[in-house]
Structure formats: C-alpha cells, structure tokens
Design brief:
Elements: H1 2-13, H2 18-29, H3 38-47, H4 52-76, H5 78-88, H6 92-105, H7 107-113, H8 120-129, H9 134-169, H10 171-191
Helix pairs in contact: 1-3, 2-4, 3-4, 3-9, 4-5, 4-8, 4-9, 5-8, 6-7, 6-8, 7-9
C-alpha cells in the first residue's frame, strides 16, 4: 500500500498543476491545514530536480502569505477560529508557554520555531494573538520558511538520485520517520513549549 501511494505521489508531483497545488497546500498549512508542504515538496523536487528552486520559492512565498492569514486569525479572531485551531491540535497548554516565549525571546522564537517540525500554523496564530510586530513577523517568516524550503530543495537537487534510491529502498522506514517527526512536532509544542 505504501509503495502504491508513493508511486501515485511521484506521478502527481510531475503533473503540470503540481506547483499551483503545492502553493495552495503551503498557504493552508501556515494557518490551519495539518499536513506540511514537505509531503509534496520532496516528491516534486525528486520528480523534476531542474525546478527545485522554483518549487522552493513557490513554497516559501505561499507559506509566508498563509502565515499572514494565520497571523490575522490570531490577531482578530483568536477567541473563535484561533482557539478552535489550537484545540483541534490539542495545543492549549503550550500556547501560554509560547506567548511567554515571545515576551522573553521575541524574534528568536519565530526564527527558531519556523525551522523546526513544530507546526508553523501555531507560530503564526500565536504571533497574531500576542500582537507581535507584523513587519518583524513577515521578515522572520521569509527567512525561516525560505531557509527551510530552499535547504531541502538544494539537498534534493544536489543529491536527488541517492536520496530517491534510499527512500525507495526503505520506503516504510522513511514513511514512519516522517510520521514520527510530524507527530513529534505537535507533541513537542504541547509539552515542551
């Protein structure tokens, strides 16, 4: 089953509408969607390494724009939509710690959290709820999201075939590691931050 799903995703990654679809996923993930854009970014770059940096740019721009939606949700609608998103991902306990982190660390909290597997939507909503400076939020988001997506794309562009071979030989292991990292990001946010 995992092999057929992987083959299907690789085929979709080469589709002409894959880049716009990645843009939509990147946008939505930054505000409420649970699945990170890496699910599409990695197979898309592996399917067409010549577009690696275009794919990273689309991912970055759309993620930052979606981050603005997340920021607006936290700033204007935290009591309704923002709390719903936080409750949906069971992050209530971590939110107050995250707000305290804003007061203590400021911009560094966004720069560090934007690079980690901690769900970016929680960073964006918490930034808005804390009324963090919008200009600072935007440039920090551009830096962290850009570094993250361009680094992944550059590694896949440079070492794509060995990475693809590794993934295809150890597909079950890679799938489990990805799921553990995804769930681990949510757990880390809930219990550590």
């Amino acid at each position: 089953m995992i092999r057929s799903l992987y083959d299907w995703v690789i085929r979709l990654a080469a589709h002409p509408r894959a880049i716009p679809a990645l843009g939509v996923i990147s946008f939505l993930e930054s505000s409420f969607f649970p699945i990170p854009p890496d699910v599409m970014l990695i197979p898309m770059v592996l399917a067409n390494r010549t577009k690696a940096f275009t794919i990273a740019a689309v991912c970055t721009v759309c993620s930052v724009l979606g981050g603005l939606l997340g920021y607006a949700i936290g700033y204007y609608f935290f009591e309704t939509i923002g709390e719903w998103v936080v409750r949906t991902y069971h992050m209530e306990a971590g939110l107050s710690a995250f707000r305290a982190g804003f007061e203590k660390w400021g911009i560094w909290i966004i720069l560090i959290k934007g690079l980690t597997p901690i769900p970016y939507k929680l960073v964006t909503i918490a930034s808005g709820a804390a009324h963090f400076d919008l200009f600072t939020f935007v440039w920090a988001s551009i830096v962290t999201r850009g570094v993250r997506f361009f680094a992944v794309s550059a590694l896949l562009w440079k070492y794509g075939e060995p990475i693809r071979s590794f993934i295809e030989k150890r597909l079950t292991l890679v799938t489990w590691l990805f799921l553990i990292a995804l769930i681990g990001g949510f757990v880390a946010f809930r219990y550590i931050f």
